[in-house]
Each structure stands twice: as C-alpha cells, then as structure tokens.
Design brief:
This protein has three domains: 191 residues, no CATH class; 114 residues; 198 residues, Pseudouridine synthase. The longest helix is centred in the middle third of the chain and has 68 residues. Helices cover 36% and strands 19% of the residues. The strands form four sheets. Strands 7, 8, 9, 10, 11, 14, 15, 16 and 17 form a nine-stranded mixed beta sheet that branches. Strands 1-3-2-6 form a four-stranded antiparallel beta sheet, with helices on both faces.
Length: 555
C-alpha cells in the first residue's frame, strides 16, 4: 500500500508479529517495522516534502532527519503504522501523513514564540553592546591608562636606580672630603633617597586610584552586558522549564507526566534541549491518545549526515539515550517490552586462550563480545577471569583495553614493575599496534591517514562524536589489504588510543565513509564486529628487547 495523508497507514503483512516491543535502545528492527519503514522511504524518495535532505547542487545547508514508524493495531484489530519525524521539517511541525508534535512550540503567539522573540531581542541588545563604539572606547581608554601608568611607574623606578648609582659614585669619589663634609654628604644622599621613596609611594597611590577609576568606568559597561546575559540565561531556563511542563506525555497505563517531572524522577537533571521532539515519543503519544495498540518500532536516518555524528542514509538506528531513555521508560510502562539485551553477557560461554606467558607478562587472544574489564552491569571480563584463575598474579593485570566487540591481542602483566614499564610505553605511544578489519564498502585509496578528534556523545553514550572544539586528537594510519564482494579488508595502525577510534574513523563521512562490518553502534548489526587486534610490538619489561606478537583474525 502507498503512504497516505491520514495518520493511520494500513499495512499488509503476512508474517508473525512480535510478542513484545523490542528494547528501543538496542534492537534489530522487526520485519513488520521494516516493511512499514520501506513504505515511508518510498514516499520520502518522491521528494514531496519541501525540505533539503541532501546537499546535491544547492548552496543551502542540508539537514538530514531521523524518521520513525510505529506499527499499530486499531480498535478493529487492523494492522497499520504511524509515521513520525524528529524535530521540525521544512520549518513546520505539521505534515500530511505524519503524527503531530506532543506540544507545538512553533504555534504563532504561543508563550514559547513570545519567549523566543524576547530572547532574540535580548541577544540583539547584547550583541549591540558587545560591538558598540562606547565599549571599544572604554576598553581602549582603560588599556591606554593602564599602559601609561605602568610606563610612568617603570620610568620612575629606572630613575631611582640611576640616582642610586649616582649617589654611590659620589660616595666613592668623596675620599678627599673631611669627616664633617663626608657626614654632611651622607645626610644629603640619605635625604634624597627618602624623598624618592616617599614620591614612589605617592606615585603608586596615584596610579592605583587612576587605574581603579578607569577600570570602574570600563567595568560598569561590562557589568551591564553581564547583567543582560544573566537575564537572558534566566529567561531561557524559565522558558525551557515552562516548555517541558507543557510536554505532557502518556503511557499505556493511562498515566500522564510532564517531561520536566519525568527527568526529575529519573535522575534529578534538567531535560536536554529538544527532549520530546524525537520521533519515538511522538509516535507512542499519538498511539495512546487514539487507542492504537503499539506492535513494533523502527527509526531510520534520511539524508545527509551531521558533521559530528555518524549517520548513514536509510540506515536504522536505536533511540538516543540522553533525551529518550527517561521519556520512553515512562511511556512504555504498561506494554510488554523486551528485556534490555545489554544486561545479558554475550561472553559467558567464550573462552580466553593464553598464547604466551612468562614471569612478567601474558598475552591472550580476547574473544569478541567479552569485556576487557568489568562493566557497569556485567562483571565477567578478562580482568575478572584472570583474577579468579590466577590469584598468584600480583598485577595490575590490565595495561590496555579492547572494546567489548573487538577481538585479538591483549597484553596482561603479572607484577607492578612490568605494569609500570608497559604502561609508560602505552602512554608515550611507543607500542606498535596493527588491527585488521572488514569495511562494508570499497575503499579507493591504498593507504592514508585519518585525523579526526573525538569526544563522547553526551546525549547518546557510549557513542563518540567528531569534535574540533572539545575533542581529543585521534590519528589512524591505514592500508588496504584486499577488495572483494563490495567489501574492503584493511589494516589500521592507530597512533592514538581513543574510545571507538577505529570504528568512528571508518564510518564517519570525513573518514573512510564505510563502517566496520557488524558495527552495532555506527553501522549494521551482524554476527560480530569484524575488527581484530592482530599485531603488537613493545619492549619486554625484563629483557628490554622488542617483543613482537601476531594473532591472525578468524574472519
């Protein structure tokens, strides 16, 4: 069936429906949700919506969007789906065939619009003061007064030094004077020195008063700007609080709470800007308000990726945690929801093979999906098992880490001396590392360097963002090994060790543009993440000679 202008889009599906809503923060879309999503994608491909999703030949800024579908049953038991979009689209919150917002902040003359205009007016006023000629003149006057005072004081200090040298010279040339004449000279020189010190003290007081006056005049203007900034911040917070109080969401138990209340009860924090505007909360809200029974959810990205995040056109993504986890945790109460799969230990039946061991170190082949160190919810890890199985190892055992999903070489230490020696090499980046990966596309370059600084995505941990302002340096060298069946086998040589560095550098639009095969965070889930720590070289803590080790990838 084609996408319609009504909110309920009938859906033909002959397969088995899910018994529970999949955990929204880590899932593979159910077949029925994917079928609904494909229908929505076909509609978006028509270009009916006046929104620039891709750059193409336009000079305007393209903005890709996250879309969502919620498969539902109506009161007659008929299957269909609802469509939603995160945020506004084409400068509007209302589009035929899409569910409306939970609260329409764009409605003309609403308190939010009035508040926005008030904030905009303050911003203009602040900018005018910041760029005013009066501010520039005040600052210039203060700086010139400060420089003049500092010069005057320094000049007099130099004069004092010179007169002191002159007095010393007069003393040294007074050998022919009588005792009375010499005493008289000493008295004169002493009086001169005292007068200079008195004048220096007076001059410092005068300069301090002049500087305080100049600074007071300058600071009075700066205080006016700061007061306006503080007023704008207070107005913005009041407006945000009022806005989040207006976002009243429902759940399957017919209970209502504002987003402000939900976050207060969740962890006492303030909701991030944009909370409640994502597709999933809109979809569930409309379903509950219109007596639809939710069946399955799927969200996908459409259009150009943001510069900081990894977003692939048409790819499915889980809901974000920072904004949606508290809200959806409330809204899904009363529905049958799959247990959080992230609480399960995928490494429970995996074994750790010790490939090399001496009195100082051990080298193991860490299997994929096993933690290097205990996590927030799962204790089972390389560290935990080694502690249990080798109580004679003094440790610290773990010198470096691999992502849970990454397999390969992990170097362990048995004593503090070995640990400190190896840790120093890792910190100074003297350890040579090589990873093997398979990328989900064909890379044209044979070799190169990726330099994209990274930081954590505060709204969607543990994902990482490319950030040139706050990110830490992250550099990766790469070399293509082979290309086959539309995939690329590649070697990575990381020069830094940032979290998810190889995964982001592979998938990001400014990197290699293709995610690592099986990457559940930046690509598409598969049987495993095809990333393996294959080679390592370091100085042995006892022999001080270079130690090389190689473990081939199993894929």
């Amino acid at each position: 069936m084609a996408f319609t202008n009504s909110h309920f889009h009938p859906l033909e599906f002959t397969g088995e429906l899910p018994e529970k809503i999949l955990y929204p923060f880590f899932y593979r879309p159910h077949a029925v949700a994917k079928k609904a999503a494909e229908e929505l994608k076909e509609y978006l491909a028509l270009g009916t919506i006046d929104h620039l999703f891709n750059q193409e030949n336009s000079n305007a800024a393209a903005i890709g969007k996250m879309f969502g579908v919620l498969v539902v049953k109506n009161k007659a038991g008929e299957l269909g789906y609802l469509a939603g979009v995160s945020g506004k689209m084409a400068n509007s919150n209302h589009h035929p065939g899409f569910v409306p917002p939970i609260y329409d902040m764009l409605e003309e003359n609403s308190y939010f619009r009035v508040g926005e205009r008030e904030l905009a007016k303050m911003t203009v006023e602040i900018k005018a003061l910041e760029n005013s000629e009066e501010r520039s003149l005040n600052k210039e006057k203060y700086e010139s007064t400060k420089q003049a005072c500092e010069k005057e004081l320094e000049d007099f200090k130099q004069k004092i030094k010179q007169t002191k040298r002159d007095r010393d010279e007069r003393r040294s040339n007074a050998s022919e004077l009588s005792e009375d004449e010499f005493k008289k000279l000493q008295l004169e020189l002493s009086e001169e020195s005292k007068k200079e010190q008195i004048y220096l003290k007076w001059l410092r007081k005068q300069i301090r008063e002049r500087l305080e006056k100049a600074e007071s005049e300058y600071q009075a203007f700066e205080n006016k700007i700061e007061e306006l900034r503080a007023k704008r911040a207070q107005t913005s917070k009041r407006l945000q609080d009022q806005l989040f109080q207006s976002y009243i969401v429902e759940n399957a138990n017919n209970k209502e709470e504002s987003i402000l209340e939900i976050f207060h009860n969740w962890d006492g924090t303030q909701p991030p800007a944009g909370t409640g505007e994502c597709a999933a909360p809109k979809l569930f809200q409309f379903a509950f308000q219109n007596n639809y029974t939710p069946v399955a959810l799927a969200e996908f990205w459409w259009g150009e990726s943001p510069k900081s995040e990894v977003r692939k056109h048409e790819q499915y993504y889980p809901c974000c945690r920072g904004k949606c986890e508290p809200v959806l945790s409330f809204m899904l109460q009363g529905l049958k929801v799959e247990e959080n799969p992230l609480l399960q230990n995928p490494g429970v039946n995996k074994t750790i093979e010790i490939l090399y061991e001496d009195e100082d170190i051990a080298i193991v082949n860490k299997p994929h999906d096993l933690l290097s160190v205990p996590g927030k919810n799962i204790e089972d890890s390389v560290w935990y098992r080694m502690k249990q199985n080798h109580p004679d190892w003094d440790g610290p055992i773990i010198v470096h880490r691999l992502d849970m999903a990454t397999s390969g070489i992990l170097v362990l230490t048995k004593n503090i001396r070995a640990y400190q020696f190896l840790q120093s090499q890792f910190i100074k980046r003297r350890v040579e590392k090589q990873y093997t990966a398979i990328l989900t596309g064909t890379i044209e370059q044979e070799k190169g360097v990726i330099d994209l600084p990274l930081r954590v995505d505060l709204l969607d941990r543990p994902k990482q963002l490319v950030c040139y302002e706050h990110g830490k340096p992250a550099v990766t060298e790469f070399e293509v090994v082979s290309r086959e069946n539309g995939e690329t086998r590649i070697h990575f040589f990381p020069k830094t060790g940032r979290t998810h560095q190889l995964r982001v550098h592979s998938a990001h639009s400014l990197g290699l543009k293709f995610p690592i095969k099986g990457d559940d965070l930046y690509g598409t889930v598969s049987n495993r993440l095809h990333l393996h720590a294959e080679r390592i070289a370091f100085k042995h803590p006892r022999t001080k000679e270079m130690f090389h080790f190689h473990i081939p990838a199993e894929f």
